[in-house]
From TrEMBL:
One of its GO terms (molecular function) is kinase activity. This is Carbohydrate kinase PfkB domain-containing protein. It comes from Spiroplasma litorale. SUPFAM superfamilies: Ribokinase-like. The lineage of its organism: Bacteria, Bacillati, Mycoplasmatota, Mollicutes, Entomoplasmatales. Pfam families: PfkB.
Length: 283
């Protein structure tokens, strides 16, 4: 079984600070990192570490950021990404506070505008699972990507809307839901989308649209799972202080996909596996 991961590979500039500054004020950075990220790349990195057969469908452009991205992909033996030198890749400034929470400022690049010809590189019939990210759904790429995926409705789609869930056009979201994707998101995203403070009401509302499993991450409390009226919560037994939660959701769904591919087993076991192992990637 093979997975296609559709989305962005960008550069994350991560700055560690005590807390976010007020408007017009100043703050010193205690430490910083410069690394390749992006939801799709983060997911693919987990799949690679878990020895899953996959392709990363992500564009690499031309410029300082793109050069850094390509160097990382080449070093880790990614060999089936898209090369399009029409512009540079994007980057994201991530401000990480003492409590591990993060705030993003993103500058979009070539990943904001997928091109139809890029799909010629991939035979979508080869893949059992197809992952796609929410950031691409709220920019100029969304309609094109979904139009292509609508030709393969027999596939198992995995959709991670992310914080952009409320910025996705309603008509496009309806088309996404008709693909019946497995949905993975955090509690804040779920409640904001459903406009309620009740997680069960929100899950039932979303399930009526997607008709497939929904996995919700709950931070240090673990995660929950909803499918066809069944609601389960999975607690984390050994809590560890997290200093940077960047990529935690991407890692979590990457581990779930890995379990489903390797074990062809239940979602319950997949979610428990992800809860137990996500800490190895983000601490």
């Amino acid at each position: 079984m093979k997975v296609l991961v559709i989305g962005a590979a960008i550069v994350d500039i991560i700055m560690y600070i005590d807390k976010l500054p007020k408007s017009g004020s100043d703050v010193l950075c205690k430490n910083n990192e410069f690394r390749v990220g992006g939801c799709a790349f983060n997911v693919s990195k987990v799949l690679k570490n878990e020895n899953i057969n996959f392709d990363l469908f992500s564009p690499v452009g031309k410029g300082i950021v793109a050069n850094y991205v390509k160097e990382e992909l080449d070093k880790n033996k990614y060999n089936n990404f898209v090369v399009d030198q029409s512009q540079d890749n994007g980057y994201c400034l991530t401000l990480v506070e003492n409590n591990g929470e993060r705030t993003f400022v993103t500058s979009k690049g070539i990943e904001k505008q997928f091109k139809k010809k890029w799909f010629n590189k991939y035979n979508l019939n080869k893949y059992e699972y197809i992952y796609f990210e929410g950031y691409r759904m709220s920019d100029n790429s969304g309609d094109l990507i979904i139009s292509e995926l609508e030709n393969y409705k027999d596939k198992k789609f995995i959709f991670c809307p992310g914080p952009n869930i409320t910025n996705i056009d309603n008509d496009l979201m309806n088309r996404i839901m008709k693909l019946k994707p497995i949905i993975h998101l955090n509690k804040k995203e779920l409640l904001e989308y459903s406009k309620t403070d009740d997680i069960l009401i929100a899950l039932k509302d979303l399930y009526q649209k997607s008709n497939n499993a929904i996995i919700v991450t709950l931070g240090s409390e673990g995660s929950s799972y909803y499918n066809n009226g069944e609601y389960l919560e999975f607690k984390i037994s050994n809590k560890t202080k997290i200093y940077n939660t960047t990529g935690a959701g991407d890692t979590h769904i990457g581990l779930i996909i890995s379990w489903l591919i390797n074990k062809n087993n239940s979602f319950n076991d997949a979610v428990e596996y992800a809860n137990k192992n996500v800490i190895k990637y983000i601490i």
